[in-house]
# Entry
Amino acid sequence: MRPLEGIRIADFTVHAAGPFSTHMLAMMGAECIKIETALRPDIFRKPHTVYGRAGAATFDQVSAGKLSVRLNLKTAEGILLAKRLVAVSDVAAESFRAGVMERLGLGYDALKAVKNDIVMVSISSSGQTGPDSHFAGYAPLFGAWGGLGFMSGYPDGPPLEMRHVMDHSVGMNAAAATVAALHQRRRTGRGAHVDVAAREVASSLIGEAMMAAAAGVEPARLGNDDHRRAPHGVYATVEADRWLTVSVGSQAEWHGLLSVIGRTDLLRAPQYETGADRHANREALGRLVAAWAATQEAGAAAEALQRAGVPAHVSVTASEIAADPHMRARGAIVDVTETGGTVRAAVGRPARFSSADAPAFARGTPGLGEHEDYVYGELLGLGRAAIDDLVARQIIH
Amino acid sequence: MTTDDTNGPLHGLKVVEHARGVAAAYAGRLLAAMGAEVVMVEPPEGTPLRREPPFLDTEEEWSALFTYLAAGKDSVVADLASASGHATLTALLDAADIFIDDTPLAERDALRLGAATLAAAHPRLIHTSVLPFGATGPKAGWAGEEINLIHASGEGYLLPNGLTADLFPDRPPLKIAGHFAEMQGGVTAVFAVLSALWAGGGAGATGGGRTVDVSVQDANVAIGAFAVQRYGDGSIEHRHERKFRYGGVIECADGYVELLTLEERQWDGLVELMGRPAWASDPAMASAAARSAAGETINAHIRAFAAGERAADLVARAQRLGVPMAPYNTPDGVLADPHVAARGLFAPVDVPGVGALPIQAAPFRFGPAPLAAPHGPPELGAATSRLAATAIAAADARKVTA
# Structure
């Protein structure tokens, strides 16, 4: 049995961060009802230039495992049905701009009126309150607002643009906060309105830089450098565009590196004796490692360094991850069968549990409205005729 | 300021943390922010996190990273290799709901920190292992620091993208600032352990002995899910091609902004923002596909326009027109942002000998008000006499009555 079995989510989220958060909760066993409308299908049901997709997705990672119903929220009856769904749910998740749910009549107070202990989760660019709460945003903007983009990049270059890992980082935080709110409900009987602001997730990831800046330490854009470790970087290998990452902090790691690169003559070198010495002379050290790495095959080099206790890894591509024996042994990468029979790799469970190891994927991407008989019929108790009537009048649409 | 639950959503939860790395420490940090009682068990010389530069004071006593990660926690010193240290940990774990540990696998048995040993000794405890590559699988014993982990997850290979990649195409891939990947491991650990706790019936319930195995690599592959999904669709991304056709990182007179227009009305707003220039009303710019093809030309126009603008002013005008744009804030810029102030995102935390510094309690809140600011970071072993002695006395009392 998976840990969150028995939890039901009315999922109004769209785009990336929100659907990822409910995807995580669904992977843990929550029953997630994705509420969509044919009037404005989710991005995975249509071509999407940003994701480089010419047609509808045949498999969508963050929709897999969810139930799908159609519901037209532009109608009063649609709103009433949405409230009935919330009334039989534990969690209501949404990621519209702040204020949209209120305008629809589905704000926290309205949901609380139909389910007193509902955990409402709102995911937005800038939060539910404050002067910028209505601002539009996407992942690169969150990173910019929160300072993470400025702090990332080469020291002599512009700030760095964050991509979808920024969105999904927001989603992971939202998933964690959702389960925390459920614990609060269990303890106190009260629900909560969880407010997750994407730009605040970005700033939380550099909380130490915020404190340092306030204490008068000039914020440094380090690129691939570290404040303490050296050598520390990403090195070209003998293979084209295949890179090796190396991080040396302790004396043991330093000695391990020297043995692997065949430079034990430097064991007593005064300029590299302590961690502080090595950091002060990191440019020369970087050239030393780069010269060695340029003659090496990346995978073998990483394994040799690891055997010597040195943190090292190849800079891997998605294709390598999909085939990786370690990831597959952990169930972090799994094979899923698409509608039509094609087998493909997908990201599996985000963590392993000793007592809950059921497969993470109960089903693939749902068809639009695939689960309406179960949701409207079984859960809400609507008869066939009533459902057909709602479909005919484009309430369920 | 606190939420409507003045104690935080996890009030009553007891957590013991044994962390030398950022991922496990960040998990404890988020649990503490949500009201859990978190005790760091540190070796006599302190966790190595206390020695991570930069420091907040000239005496180099308070690491900025440690201060951020340890705020709201207590510190107990215990040398786990010694009998008394082990007794202290055992007593603390007897009273705890959750144990977070990032001891490398090879060192666990000697310290009696193996999963089976802990499950037998503490049946109601949820043992949360947080390791770079997890506690099982062929790479479970591998070491990994931030730069290794961001590249072990696929995102590192895709960075830098956009303007940085255009400017420096021959440089090595680049990490994200700070401890991005390790912190994802921490957030994922919180999500996982709270889920495991939910299944066990909540704080105080008996019958568990469960182990949660968190891998920082897994967490980052999860948040990078689109890369694996796109691979399954037959497309491999590369940092040199991963850029928006137009928009992206744009330089203004006094800094950079990020601009991203995905919808037609946003493009219309952008044209309005630029003062309806003639080139933008060219029929060749009428469709999204045509604009995509003319991306470089469009961006040259946008860059020329933005070069004379002030970032804050431009963002304000853009957002009024519904154009998604944000300033690339410095940390000082974030701290001075009126929206951030209105949200009460940062609250003062007292750092001994340094004074009050702004800290972000958490990246989420459970109502209109932020979570309460954590108390300052603990001196090494500040709670040893209070917590360790109490825990050992309680454990002894249990033995007597048993």
